[in-house]
Amino acid sequence: MVKTREIRLKTKGDCDVVNITEMVIEEVSGSGIRDGIVTLFNVGSTAGITTTEYEPGLVNYDIAACFEKIAPENARYEHEETWHDDNGHSHVRASLLGPSLAVPIVGGRLTLGTWQQIILVDFDTRARARTVICQIIGE
To answer: What's residue 43's pLDDT?
Structure first.
């Protein structure tokens, strides 16, 4: 069985970290699938999805600081030269994090660790309306 849902949310941009775990749990619970996998896919090229411990140090500082070292906001990006915009770093950061995540479902529950949450990180330079495709496959 395959169930496909959309999770819609608003983000602030500038490395906004949003905990979407409860939204995913809700979709999985409502799917009727007990054993399988949920694949999450961010629609767009300036945000990514992963897991982490959703705690203030990581959420409010460490994640943004890490990506600033890897793909600095004020560096020169060919993307910006081509499109005359300001979000070249956003695309690079999102490419590094990746747009998707797969989580096994066992007994109707996500197999996340005690301190593991699913997050969407919006790297764009402005607030956005985001869509995450939530495809639940199993029986």
So the answer is: 98
Other residues' Cβ atoms within 10 Å of the Cβ of residue 89: 24
Give the pLDDT confidence of 81-123 residue by residue, as tens digits: 999 999 999 999 999 999 999 999 999 999 999 999 999 999 9
What is the value of pTM for the model shown?
0.96
Return the closest-CA partner of residue 9 out of 50, 1, 38, 22. 22
Give helix 88-97 / helix 63-70 axis angle, nearest 10°.
110
CB-based contact 50:32 (threshold 8 Å): no
**pLDDT tens per residue across span 61-76:** 999 999 999 999 999 9
Give 82's contacts (C-beta < 8 A, 6+ positions apart): none
Domain ranges of the chain: 2-138
CATH 2.40.30.170 fits 2-138, yes or no: no
- Indicate the helix (H) or strand (E) that contains 128: strand 128-138
CB contact at 8 A, 100 and 49: yes
